[in-house]
Amino acid sequence: MRPKQKSQKQLELEVENFNLKFKVGDKVKLEVDGGEIKEVTVKHEATILGGHSAMGWFNEISGCYQLDRVRGGV
To answer: Cα–Cα distances in Å, from 2 out to 5, 6, 18, 24?
Structure first.
């Protein structure tokens, strides 16, 4: 069963909370594909991608990851 898609308001709140907690240049723990936890640096403020996903942008990886894969600050 697919998880229920988050509402626009939920996505906006998730992005806002991330951006308040973590600033560009902060180090965070990120669960990458395969379950490995990597320490990465926030590259840009989080955004909503395509109207359906709250995403974070990080220096040490290519692309972006959903904010629910961030496991906290370093």
So the answer is: 9, 12, 24, 32
Q: Where are the domains of the chain?
A: 8-73
| pLDDT, tens digit (0-9, with 9 covering 90-100), for 8-53 | 999 999 999 999 999 999 999 999 999 999 999 999 999 999 989 9
**pTM of the shown model:** 0.88
> What is the pairing mode between strands 70-73 and 37-49?
unpaired
Phi, psi of 11 (to 5 degrees): -65, -45
Smallest CA-to-CA distance from 40 within 20, 65, 13, 15 is with: 65
Can you name the CATH fold of 8-73? SH3 type barrels. (2.30.30)
Residue 3 has pLDDT above 80, yes or no: no
For residues 62 and 72, give the distance between their C-alpha atoms in angstroms, rounded to a whole number: 20
Q: What number of residues does the chain have?
A: 74
